[in-house]
Specification:
Layout lengths: L1 H34 L6 H19 L1 H19 L11 H50 L3 H16 L3 E7 L5 E7 L11 H13 L3 E3 L4 E4 L2 E5 L8 E10 L2 E11 L6 H66 L7 H32 L8 E3 L1 H11 L9 E5 L6 E3 L1 H17 L7 E8 L2 E8 L34 H11 L4 E6 L3 E9 L7 H12 L1
Parallel strand pairs: 9-11
Antiparallel strand pairs: 1-2, 1-7, 3-6, 4-5, 6-7, 8-10, 11-12, 12-14, 13-14
């Protein structure tokens, strides 16, 4: 309402300026015409008065125009129609001329005033359209319901110069609650008691704006709106406006202003327009939220199905092996030799480790998807973690030549040793599984700007180009043929690698050529290492040398 208040102030000044111009203009023309009576005719003087009337009507509107017409009528009669200096008109033709002047001046004032009013109305409509267009663009840019409502209440408060604004939405029981207010501290001004709640509910049900502090139209909970002056004319005026969409009532918008006048019909209409615009945005936000929830449920269902499909196979295989080995050992009628018993126990141990890794991967995936993965970073050497992993995987790498190249200038890096070791182990195991025996696996580590880049390269089956964008997706497995098809896996390892590396602030990528091999590369950010007493003493020793 700020721009409306400004417009009213400008209108008031324009009106008074029109009256002032009328008095001064008539006085100036009268002085000039009286002093030059012998050189000017009565018609010239009347036309001069008429010019002043038109100028007053143009500048101030109908009121100043009519006022100037009457003053010019009386002045022209008093000074320029015989007998002079008297309001008596001597000749009939002078009487006719005098009233023709008054009629012409009045009609001209009315026409000019109408043109002015139409111009002001067009300007006001343009301002409203621009404001609504700006609000629409901002609402389109927002997506979630809370951001939409925040935009609505803030824009309404700023555009109309209000003390505050709020959007009230029904809860599960149908009771209107303040969903969002601007400023946030003003939420207590709405539906703060039973009477306010009844007014808001009435507006929600009927779609008729109503409020408090209005001396003209007041809604009372025990009856409909009616005229009266029982309410005080001072203090905060709160107006509740319905928020309605095509589907029906969506909520209620409350606006509060400290002002002496009631909300005008134009203000109510414009506020209702804003509220309806907000209702469309609220409907859109709700539809988007429902679509997002539906997509999330669909994705959860897909992941559940993929989990069951992937894990069921990976669970059945080790469980079957464990069950067979344990059952065989329990057969008392068969005397197993020591070597056979050890073979059964070794199978049980290996398959138990396999199950443990599967459960650990599922737990890690849950932590990553839930945002609960918090690496416990410490300063470590990248070469040390590579050496630790390759030593642990030595049995797996017996049939694959291993080449490790670690740059000598690698700085210490802050990372979680266990988690990065798991990333390396997953990548090396992946390379060993999907490559033929006696093919080389290479591990390189070097510095690249502000990152340490680690690459694991195999010379295996490779990955088709159409599968590369999905290779890090959860439960995704590349369709294989031949021997590669029989290789087990739940499609969790690479997804976990991606989550762990990104939790460390790095990135992971893959490059592959079918039939030639695959290279997985991940980076870890390099940050300045803290100065410890040991490092300080080493630095001082180097400086002395």
């Amino acid at each position: 309402m700020r721009w409306l208040a400004g417009m009213l102030n400008r209108v008031a000044w324009r009106v008074w300026r029109g009256y002032l111009l009328g008095v001064l203009g008539i006085a100036l023309v009268t002085v000039i015409a009286v002093t030059s009576r012998s050189h000017l005719t009565a018609a010239t003087t009347a036309l001069s008065y008429l010019v002043i009337v038109l100028a007053c009507a143009t500048l101030g509107g109908l009121g100043p125009g009519i006022f100037t017409s009457v003053v010019g009528f009386l002045t022209f009669n008093f000074f320029f129609l015989p007998p002079f200096y008297s309001f008596t008109v001597g000749a009939l033709q002078d009487t006719v001329a005098l009233f023709v002047f008054l009629i012409v001046a009045g009609v001209a004032s009315e026409l000019v005033s109408r043109l002015q009013e139409r111009e002001r109305e067009a300007r006001r409509r343009a301002i409203e359209s621009e404001t609504l267009s700006r609000l629409s663009m901002e609402l389109i840019a927002d997506v979630t319901l809370d951001t939409v409502l925040a935009t609505v209440v803030e824009q309404v408060t700023r555009v109309f110069g209000l003390e505050s604004a709020a959007v009230l939405l029904p809860d599960q029981r149908g009771t209107l609650r303040v969903r969002l207010a601007y400023p946030a501290s003003a939420s207590g001004a709405y539906v703060r008691d039973r009477e306010h709640a009844a007014v808001a509910a009435h507006v929600f049900m009927t779609g008729i704006p109503a409020g408090f502090g209005s001396p003209h139209r007041i809604y009372r909970p025990h009856g409909p709106e009616h005229g009266g002056d029982a309410m005080p004319t001072r203090g905060r005026r709160i107006l509740y406006v319905p928020v309605r969409a095509a589907s029906g009532a969506v909520g209620v918008m409350g606006v509060a202003a400290l002002r002496a006048a009631d909300y005008s019909s134009d203000e109510r209409r414009l506020l209702t327009t804003f509220a309806n615009q907000a209702a469309l945005a609220i409907d859109r936000a709700r539809l988007i939220e429902e679509a997002t929830r539906a997509a999330a449920l669909e994705e959860a269902d897909r992941l559940k199905s993929a989990l069951l499909a992937a894990v069921s196979h990976d669970l059945r295989t080790p469980l079957a092996s464990i069950k067979a080995s344990a059952t065989s050992l329990l057969q008392e009628e068969i005397a197993w030799d020591a070597a056979t018993r050890r073979e059964f126990l070794t199978a049980i141990d290996a398959e138990t480790d396999r199950l443990t890794r599967l459960v650990a991967n599922l737990l890690d995936l849950t932590r990553i998807q839930g945002g609960a993965l918090k690496p416990e970073k410490e300063w470590n050497e990248v070469g040390e973690v590579i050496a630790s992993v390759t030593d642990r995987l030595a049995p797996l790498l017996q049939r694959h030549p291993l080449r490790v190249t670690v740059a000598s200038d690698l700085p210490p890096v802050a990372f979680d040793f266990v988690e990065i070791a798991q990333v390396l182990a997953n990548l090396i195991e992946n390379g060993a599984k999907y490559s033929d025996p006696d093919t080389e696996i290479a591990i390189t580590a070097h510095r690249d700007g502000q990152h340490v880049r680690v690459t694991v390269t195999d010379h295996g089956f490779g990955i088709p180009p159409e599968d590369l964008p999905h290779i890090f997706d959860t439960f995704y497995r590349v369709p294989r043929a031949g021997r590669a098809r029989r290789i087990g896996g739940a499609g969790l390892g690479l997804a976990i690698c991606k989550g762990v590396v990104e939790a460390h602030g790095g990135s992971i990528a893959v490059a592959s050529v079918v039939g030639q091999g695959t290279a997985f590369t991940f980076t870890l950010p390099v940050t300045p290492a803290p100065v410890t007493p040991e490092r300080a003493s080493l630095a001082m020793g180097d400086a002395r040398a």
